[in-house]
Amino acid sequence: MKAGVIGVAYPRAALIGNPSDGFGGMTISFVFSDFHAEVRLEEHDHIEVLPGRVDHLEWADLNAFRTSVSTMGYYGGLRLLKATLLVFIKHCEQNQIPLHERGFRLSYETDIPVLLGLSGSSAIISACLRALGSWYGVKMEPWLLANLAWQVETEELHIPAGLQDRVAQAYNYPVFMDFDESHFNTNPYGKYEKLRRPLKNIYIAYSDVLAEGSEKTHGNLRARFNNGDTEVLEAVEKWKSLTLLFRDALQADDMDTMFDCIDTNFDIRNMITDLHPQQVELVKLARQSGACAKFCGSGGAIIGMYRDDRMLSRLRSDLSKAGVNMLLPNIVYQE
User: Fold this and answer.
1) Domain 202-327 falls under CATH 3.40.50.1000
2) In sequence order, what are the residues at sequence separation of 6 or more whose Cβ sits closer than 8 angstroms to the Cβ of residue 263?
3) Res 25 pLDDT > 90
4) Active-site residue 165, yes or no?
5) Where are the alpha helices (DSSP H) in 14-95?
6) Which of 3.40.50.150, 3.30.230.10, 3.40.630.30, 3.40.50.2300 would CATH assign to domain 4-194?
7) Catalytic residue among 165, 178, 263, 318
8) What average pLDDT does the segment 219-232 reach?
């Protein structure tokens, strides 16, 4: 039987503070196990990287091609595996970590809904890094795993991204993150704190027809931030304040404050950026039941809280009538 290892990572949901993570801000995020990405590495006589089901290059007809590109985008996971392998090799070379010469076949599978702001791409990357680390016996602390995953997207693939997705996936625990620039001057990582207080009454909802890559959603914000746009700079500071306020409210079990923080987080984002009208309507749809709502990430999926079973029932009904998927996430708490 051929030797092999498997790496697993989960989708990320940003509960508060996003998208300030890409701009020296603060966030609270978690991963949930309702979906997952799996990377399998099996012994082989040479190095081979296999395409996944979304990397196919054949379609039954033009309509099938249009549907594929419209829902999955132009990119599958093959480029993610190749870029991750390259970053891993560079890391080992730079740190004089010897690697054995055994060949392998690298493949992946994922059921994480794509292009909905659930960090499906970074999940494939994080799972791949875990598989490579196991295969070569290279230990990576969570902060390092997050940094390497971030390098894959930003340096190798030139995708605008903050660190928070990879941090949550690396720690497999709800994490408060502070990306203060001064901290990075003396440390290779941000201030990361596991939140021991259980997160309750959380829901996630998403629409299959609202897929949009983070490149589109975050590209303009990055340019405005780099140019010193006052509106964006002020928004980042407000998102940071909301994150701190939410963390304190979580400890005090203050549901009212947590509700207000989540709603305000989205309202600020909606005021300073041109969001997809249907994505804004998704937030409004959830709020009409009394629940709070904001984007999970770049858009297409939302996250919020509900107060009680009655509100949850109405939320389910409203979303279902609109053809929107909803789940109560199985939040990962892995020590």
Assistant:
1) no
2) 287, 292, 293, 294
3) yes
4) yes
5) 62-72, 78-94
6) 3.30.230.10
7) 165
8) 86
